[in-house]
Amino acid sequence: MLMGVLLHALVLYLEPEDGSEPLMWVGVLFLWIHNWRMPLFFMLAGFFAALTLDRKSPSAFSWDRLYRIGFPIVLWWFIVAPIPLWSALREGTDLPALDHLWFLYYLLLMYAAAVVIRPFIPQQIVSIVDLSLRSRWTLLLWAIPITAFSVMGRDNGLFNVHPEFIGEIEVGFFFFSLSFFCLGWRLFYHQNLFSSLANLRWSIAALSIAMAALLAALATWLALEEELSSLAALLWVNGLSSCATLLSILGLMGLCLKLVSEPSARLRFWVEVSYPIYFFHALVVFSLGDFFVNASWPAFGAIFVNTVTSTAVSILLYFVFIRYTPLGWMFMGYKNAWFRWSKLGWIFSRQNS
Questions:
Q1: pLDDT for 261-275, tens place per residue?
Q2: Distance CA 155, CA 152 (A)
Q3: From CA 182, how far away is CA 110, in angstroms rounded?
Q4: In degrees, to the nearest 5, what angle opens at C-alpha 106 toward C-alphas 338 and 174?
Q5: How do residues 233-250 score in pLDDT, each as one tens digit?
Q6: So what's the pLDDT on residue 340?
Q7: 154: phi then psi, degrees, rounded to nearest 5
Q8: Distance from C-alpha of 50 to C-alpha of 234, rounded to nearest angstrom
Q9: 68: Cα separation from own chain's centroid
Q10: What is the pLDDT of residues 41-56, one digit of tens each?
């Protein structure tokens, strides 16, 4: 999620207001992050959904997902669009836009499908899918369905097409995202693969091939003047882009597994604040980015300062409004939140003693 702050700081420099061509490094960096960030998120969501559903009943899991995934959308509407939200609730008009939280809406749909459909999936289907999880090499078979859904759901094979409002479903991109959710789900039951992924040479090779494939896809798209009119070009760019996505995810996973042997206090802090940072950053990053563009700041300095400032402000908002209040239950869960009823009772007892 933290990469989302940098991604949105880059957005304003993709199409400069003066009509000039975007800086090459901005476009490549944006596309690289954009290529794997949300697929990796959905894969991790699937992994932890399997973990949670193994420990909780379907009803407890559903409630947990609703207040940790659904309620933050409503909280965002209260902050940025209270009047449209009130009109929607009172008069039945459309709910406000999802903005940068569109992925939470898709996650709710995926969690609902996991709870409802999971008991009815034949074991034979699961066994066939699990053939692709026998080794790190067979994982590459996932590139086949990912490419198919990319053709249907990504603009020119490079750009996500996500919903703007509740009720909208971009079918192709939804199933593209769902494929990574399912991959993460099955990886939970095949954690023996992690030892083979945690190989430094393999991870670096995967990331290098991924970057080469992504640059080849970008070069093809630009050479065809940003229009994939033939089926061959469409399959070529989508295939390269999808392979880049999958290899980037597997390479980044391998690096993390290799380099992070034990969780540290610093790592736990960033894990704790990553969700709130992404929630709040949109309040800052776009308006601050507009200021830097109008002030003609150099792109590198503006993007760097915007990313750091938006992150710092989001952390401050988290500590002021979330961490020590019941709102923390949405972002960390009740058991991991600082504010708990039992702690509140302990504080009162200390004051009265």
A1: 777 888 888 888 999
A2: 8
A3: 9
A4: 150
A5: 899 999 999 999 999 999
A6: 78
A7: -115, 135
A8: 34
A9: 15
A10: 999 999 999 999 888 8
Query: Residue 351 has what pLDDT?
Result: 44
Q: Would the pLDDT of 130 be above 60?
A: yes
Residue 278's pLDDT is 93
Length of the chain: 353
Residue with tokens 């709710």: 108
Upper half-sphere CA count for residue 303 (Cβ side, 13 Å): 20
Q: Is 81 exposed, middle or buried (0-12, 13-18, 19+ CB in 10 A)?
A: middle
Confidence of residue 342 (pLDDT cuts 50, 70, 90): low
Q: How far apart are CA 184 and CA 298, in angstroms?
A: 40
Of 307, 306, 327, 330, which Cα lies nearest the Cα of 2? 307
Nearest to 95 by CA among 155, 43, 167, 12: 167
Region of residue 269 (phi > 0: left; psi between -120 and 50: alpha; otherwise: beta): alpha
SS3 136: coil
H or E segment at 42?
Answer: helix 24-55
Q: Are 45 and 110 in contact (CB under 8 A)?
A: yes
Q: Does residue 277 contact residue 315 with C-beta atoms inside 8 Å?
A: yes
